[in-house]
Amino acid sequence: MSLTLYAAPMSSATPVVCALAELDIPCEIVMLDLQAGDQKKPDYLALNPNGVVPTLVVDGTPMFEAVAIMQWLGDRYGVDRGLWPAADTPERLTALSWTTWAYVTYGTMINILNYAQSPHADPALHHPPLAKHAQGEFDKLLSRLDARVSERPYLLGDAYSLADMIVASVVTYSTYCGVSLEGHPHVVAWAERFQARPAYRKTWEAAAP
Hints:
This protein has a four-stranded mixed sheet, covered by helices on one side. The relative contact order is 0.13. The longest helix is centred in the middle third of the chain and has 28 residues, at 90-117. Helix 1 (14-23) packs antiparallel against helix 6 (162-176) and helix 4 (90-117) runs parallel beside helix 6. The chain contains eight helices and four strands, in the order βαβαββαααααα. By secondary structure, it is an alpha+beta fold. A hairpin with a 2-residue loop joins strand 3 (55-58) and strand 4 (61-64). Helix content is 55%, strand content 8%.
């Protein structure tokens, strides 16, 4: 099977690069220069009409959206490697639930917070009351995650999986955006276990400016 990933340093593609490292999958990685507008060029838009990274091309067929790509990688490669639960198991349902939660529920709040206060967003969109509201919502969301990992070291039980990598990647990114994990000690310990993994150091730390 031929795999080509279009990515960029410290972008939404970074967790996908991390997943490839965890799974030890041969894959050609093409780094785009987002500042130069590589993602808006016609050849790339033919693969991903959204003009963003990541895009994974599988035997000539492109797919986009990071969480979809990583869930597919789990299905295709992770089961055999013990990093993703098999189909028709309760753990598979849990993995799909939490990884989608990270990108849809938690990820939406990251976007709201970024628009409300990030120096990279249009200042006309800044809204301190909305930023304060978002921080309160993060506290609720992190409390739910904290409860989950207080019962077990990882999301699916005693063993690390791609579900942890996917969710922890989003949570880690949120801390760069101003979200505090204070008051959620089990999340802090769980995130530290993720950040201690060689795949994390290879991808996130190597890509950091």
